[in-house]
Amino acid sequence: MNAKSLLATEEKATLLVVDDTPENLTVLGELLQSADYRVRVANSGRSALRIAVSDPKPDLILLDVMMPDMDGYAVLACLH
Questions:
Q1: pTM (global) more than 0.85
Q2: What angle do CA 20, 25, 27 make, to 5 degrees?
Q3: Distance of alpha carbon 41 from alpha carbon 62, whole angstroms
Q4: For residues 9 and 40, what is the distance between their CA atoms, to the nearest angstrom?
Q5: Which residue among 1, 44, 46, 59 is least crowded, i.e. fewest CB within 10 A of its CB?
Q6: Which 8-state DSSP code applies to residue 59?
Q7: What residues contact 15, with CB distance under 8 A and at least 6 apart?
Q8: CA 19 to chain CA mean position, Å
Q9: What is the phi/psi pair of residue 23, to 5°?
């Protein structure tokens, strides 16, 4: 089996993009979806935490550090 057919049989990676700027979520979401990732988005730290523990759990979280309600460091501390 070659690498291309092996990748075709694997499940898409799920990425969680967290940012309080809607334009950033749109651009990153579209870019990552076009690269064949499953993308979930959150516009706050609290919603990121809810999504991070739900199924499917994200394989990778792209987390904005400076958010108004709960900064990225606080989100990371809760997930750790």
A1: no
A2: 140
A3: 10
A4: 21
A5: 1
A6: S
A7: 32, 37, 38, 39, 40, 58, 59, 60, 61, 62
A8: 10
A9: -65, -40
What does each C-alpha distance from 60 to 1, 49, 68 come to in angstroms? Answer: 27, 13, 22
The answer for residues whose C-beta is within 8 angstroms of residue 3's C-beta and 6 or more apart is none
Token pair for residue 46?
A: 């609290």
pLDDT tens sequence across 1-56: 455 554 555 789 999 999 999 999 999 999 999 999 999 999 999 999 999 999 98
**What is the C-alpha separation between 40 and 63, in angstroms, rounded?**
12
17 contacts 27 by C-beta, under 8 angstroms: no
Gap between the Cα atoms of 53 and 48, Å rounded: 9
* Apex 54 CA angle, 20 and 12, nearest 5: 85
Q: Round to whole Å and give the CA distance between 63 and 72.
A: 6
